Amino acid sequence: MNNNSPAPLVSIVCPTYNHEAFITATLDSFIAQQTNFPFEVLVHDDASTDATARILADYATRYPDIIRPFYQTENQFQQGKECIPEIFKHARGRYIAYCEGDDYWTDPAKLQIQADFLEAHPDYVLTFHDAMAFDINGERGLQLQGKLRRDASALELQQGRQLSTLTVCFRNVFHEMPRELQGAPLSDMCWWSLLGAHGKGKFLAQIKPAAYRVHPGGIFSMRSEKRKLHMSLQTCQALANYYYRLGNQPLYEYFLIHVFTFSLAAISPLQKLQALMLLGRNIGVNLYKRLTTSAT
To answer: Could you point out which of 147, 191, 214, 283 has its C-alpha 20 to 30 Å from the C-alpha of 132?
Structure first.
């Protein structure tokens, strides 16, 4: 990286691991961005065992003013260590765009549109658009449907509203996870919640859908439904703990309700019945205590 190069307006953050077959398309989609401002690409290679690091090094040599590689010698994910948002600390841009090394963007105007909007609307903390999921058999459909294809209020972001993660561009306002959220499986859901404290989210329908690749090496896309359910439960529990510490009762209760819902979904029908009976009994006991206390 040339120290004399102008400071970037946008920092693209790209974690990668064993993406030899995909990383070229990803990096090319970054380089293809047409902007009137400088941007940088921070690529974190988590000790890949294939040719990913070699490809990354080649791009860093060819584009020294854009590509900033970060190489791990030991896999951090397997040690339970998150590279995100740690890598955010190195971002020099006013805004951060995110895309993993097996996905790619399709619209060369993407960053310009997102940065222009954020520059003109200080009450928005992030922008996002849609993505098309695909696998070796072709397209599997757009990620965002129905009500998700609209702006997100600050409260909706704090509630961890679903976004297409590879499409976001947000203000560079946080660099570490609160202790309750460290290790939460759905870290991007935690990012949206933290960012919601700083503003709203804008859905930009005019940006062409990005490409979300579904393949056997995908960290989340190939998880079983049972595993995804458990990851959601753990993340909501972490967020409930976080908002309990902050004293935010509405958000604490919001995530507790989701913990309860995911817990019910994860257990057998007989256990569901037993849980609901126990819940009913506890509600009855609590109501009785409140009534008798108020009567005295």
So the answer is: 191
Query: What is residue 283's predicted lDDT score, i.e. its pLDDT?
Result: 58
Asked whether residue 105 carries a pLDDT value surpassing 60, the answer given is yes
Interval 21-55: pLDDT, tens: 999 999 999 999 999 999 999 999 999 999 999 99
What pLDDT sits at residue 3? Answer: 57
> Residue 19 domain-assigned?
yes
Closest by CA to 131, choosing from 207, 190, 22, 201, is 207
Residues 6+ apart with CB under 8 A from 111: 10, 12, 33, 35, 39, 97, 169
Same domain (yes/no): 247, 204: no
97 token code pair? 């765009």
Q: Which of the listed residues 222, 240, 255 is the one where a domain comes to its end?
A: 222
The residues, ordered by sequence, that sit 6+ positions from 200 with a Cβ below 8 Å of its Cβ are 123, 124, 125, 151, 152, 153, 154, 157
Contact 13, 69 (CB under 8 A): no
* 12, 43, 176, 197, 215 from 40: Cα distances, Å: 6, 10, 20, 26, 27
CA angle 126/128/130 to nearest 5° reads: 170
- State the pTM of this model: 0.88
Query: Same structural domain for residues 189 and 256?
Result: no
Cα(35)–Cα(72) distance, rounded to whole angstroms? 31
Which residue range is the domain that position 252 belongs to? 226-295
Of all helices (H) and strands (E), which one includes residue 11? strand 10-16
